[in-house]
Design a protein that fits this description.
It is a single chain. The chain is an alpha+beta fold and about 290 residues long. The chain has three domains: about 110 residues; about 60 residues; about 90 residues, no CATH class.
């Protein structure tokens, strides 16, 4: 969405005395000290002092609220491009309060409304892009599936590639929704019973033997490292203020994925054993028999 906000908008007072070209970028607005001087009707040296104090007092982080933008300016008879310091809306608002400028209030209201409009437009544009890309991906997937049935595609590697692409299409769509800021958290289904360590170990051994038989795992697969898995189960089953820390099947599955990938409780196969689904009939979490990653 950042690129959709790389624009210039005009801020103008009702009396026409102030007319500023305001840069919109990174979901905020930016002004230089020269522009703030015109907006607040104060000397640049005064504004620079206030800005330095804002950073010195730790009210804002200069790294996050100050940026350099290339700007063409006239120096004598020449036009030169200089890197100029610009400050975002947080700095502008604080400086406006410090110099007690009524125009600062007007600018804040204008900037807030302008950003809101652009964010809504950006969300709509991203939704349209996602839908277009999703349709294109589905069309490409249909072509891949058709190709998979072709007699010419007879190598195991070729068919394996087609199978992987088909299987993870939904994952690609989820990742794109995340990148576009369109991924919503589902409500989730309450419950989710964790297996005992004995049951979990038995199922992992069963999965291990199946994968070894298919040549997709070795004896290192599912070899425990200490009591890492038991510790993870303990984390997932804990309570906070009398309520489950992870109250839904989905939250347990997501955090099991996170903890296994982060803590590596096994010598090998940590990623495959994080592929979980909910047993809708019994509310148990069970491992999926997926290809080794």
């Amino acid at each position: 969405m950042t690129n959709d906000l790389n624009q210039i908008q005009i801020f103008e007072t009702q009396d026409g005395q102030i007319n500023l070209e305001v840069r919109l970028q990174d979901e905020t607005v930016w002004l230089s000290t020269e522009q703030m001087s015109r907006l607040f009707d104060r000397e640049r040296s005064v504004l620079t002092k206030h800005i330095n104090n804002v950073f010195k007092d730790g009210e804002l982080d200069s790294y996050l609220t100050c940026a350099k933008f290339a700007q063409v300016q006239k120096e004598g008879s020449r036009e030169v491009t200089r890197e100029i310091d610009f400050y975002n809306l947080d700095v502008i608002i604080l400086v406006g309060y410090r110099v007690k400028s009524a125009r600062g209030v007007l600018f804040r209201k204008w900037a807030t409304q302008t950003l809101k409009q652009h964010l809504v437009q950006g969300y709509t544009l991203n939704q349209q892009r996602f839908n277009e890309n999703a349709h294109a991906l589905e069309a490409a997937l249909a072509l891949v599936r058709k190709t998979a049935q072709s007699p010419e595609l007879n190598t195991q590697a070729g068919r394996g590639l087609v199978e992987i692409i088909s299987r993870y299409t939904q994952t690609f769509l989820w990742l794109q929704r995340y990148d576009e800021g369109l991924l919503n958290e589902p409500a989730g289904q309450a419950g989710g019973l964790l297996p005992t360590m004995v049951d979990a170990t038995a199922k992992l051994q069963h999965l291990k033997q199946k994968l070894i038989a298919k040549g997709e795992a070795t004896e290192l697969f599912a070899q425990p490292r200490g009591d890492g898995l038991a510790a993870i189960f303990g984390n997932l089953d804990q309570f906070v203020f009398g309520e489950p820390a992870y109250p839904t099947i989905e939250s347990k599955a997501a955090h099991l994925l996170y903890f296994v990938v982060k803590n590596h409780p096994f010598a090998d196969g940590n990623l495959i054993m994080t592929m979980l689904s909910s047993n809708e009939e019994k509310g148990h979490l069970r491992p999926l028999h997926s290809p080794a990653l």
